[in-house]
Amino acid sequence: MKRVPRVRVACVLAACAVLLAACSDSGSSARIDGDGLAGTWTSGKGAALTIERTPQSFSATGLKVDASAYPDCTGELDDGGWEFYDEHGLTSPAAGSGTQLVLAFPAGRGRQSSACSVDVDVRKKSGRLMLCISDYADSTCDSGIYFTKEDGAPGR
């Protein structure tokens, strides 16, 4: 039986550790209700979301997303409405809480020339809630755009 060199084993283990650390950067999935969502959320990249509970609306400043993931969301996105995804994976104004939501930017408002929507995941890391934009459905928080609530919303 051929022995695997220790250096190779160490390299494989180190690579696995790096991959696991990268995957854990976005924290774990968390649930939030409309009251917890309401308020101002800021990113470290100069973007901000001010979310209103009633009506289910928001305003955004400095928010730009990957055009290859969201081809209809060009330029800086301004304002619109939001809804949680329900247990069936559909957005619903009646869903009172969720682990994912959609930000919908209607055509003709602000600088947005065509309607588009952006998926947002609710995450919990180090006891704090955060929102992150996911460019692709199978990749949580892959955009690198993270928001934390200005009042320091604790995790629930």
Automatic annotation (TrEMBL):
Q: Where is the signal peptide?
A: 1-21
The protein in question is named: Lipoprotein
Q: What is the lineage of its organism?
A: Bacteria, Bacillati, Actinomycetota, Actinomycetes, Kitasatosporales
* Assigned keywords, A-Z: Signal
